[in-house]
Amino acid sequence: MKTLEKLTLAGLRQIDPETAHKLGLKAVQMGLSRSRRTFSTPRIKTQIAGLSLPNPIGLAAGFDKNAEALRGLSRSGFGFLEVGAATPYAQEGNPRPRLYRLPQDRGVINRFGFNNQGMEEINKRLKWRPRDTILGLNLGANKESADRSADFARVLAYCGENLDFATVNVSSPNTEKLRELQGKAALTSLLQGVLEARDTIHRPIPVFLKIAPDLNEGEIGDIAEIALDLRLDGIVATNTTLERENLISEHKSQSGGLSGAPLFEKSTRILAKLSELTTAQIPLIGVGGVASAQDAYDKICAGASAVQLYTALIYHGLSLVEDIARGLDQFLARDGFDTISQAIGCKRDHWL
After folding, report:
1. Angle value at C-alpha 208, between 276 and 191, nearest 5 degrees
2. 319 is an active site residue
3. How far apart are CA 287 and CA 266, in angstroms?
4. Distance from C-alpha of 112 to C-alpha of 93, rounded to nearest angstrom
5. Which of 7, 75, 147, 347 has its CA 20 to 30 A from that of 302?
6. Which domains does the chain show, CATH number per domain?
7. Residues of the chain below pLDDT 70
8. pTM greater than 0.85 (yes/no)
């Protein structure tokens, strides 16, 4: 991390977290952050669901909810980007304050509640997206919707022509009863609707499912079965957690979803279990607590084909992306792997 980046992050941490996030996003949008070459080598180039990634480090949804900083983010070193979540209609989300830093735990708690400008405004920006970047959209549902299941398909049908992939997000803890859609019957019906919407797009794109970490073994098994039966293109494991264990920061008891370092082990164990249950037939994207090359490598060795991060940027800045990519290349070389695919799941049993 450069001195200027350290000073900038230190300054942003002195102000309200949500205001700081908006300022940081604006800086990326205006091109004020330093452009970075996307680090790539034959060893870390990879494919997931037919998408060719220069490296397996992705931006998780939530950082750029309204697709406002696509050009700047495309020059930030990521192998792929996910924006959103987008809902059919704009909504303000939950009242502020709704974002809390947990610096001693290297985590964050948020209860945003799918605040976004709606699919029409977001799609206007997606139409002008950089074409040299793999870009996906996180699909959400409006809080007051009469048919939340239909919302996901509606957003995909509206925005799909301008995307490379889409992620169905039924796992946010900040919209009341949303996680109930992860039940077997409800989820099957919802995903069937999304896949039907996908098939109407001129250029059909991969559809991923983002799941919660707060699932029991039976629920994880149901999700694996559904994913295999419907031939989903991938599973994103995992979203934020409602659990609060061994936290020491001031805001540790705030309601909402916990992300960052405290989520790492829990999400990685879910990832490994899904890898086992799907017998590696479905690509997995590991999310939750990735803040170093070692973290990314651990996720891959547990069964991930790629990883995503967001919370770690608050503490380490965008230079972290290239650091992880370079470090990952070194770890693979050290252990004798010529490609990422050779390393996927090689230490899965450690997490089971």
Report:
1. 100
2. no
3. 11
4. 6
5. 75
6. 35-351 (3.20.20.70)
7. none
8. yes
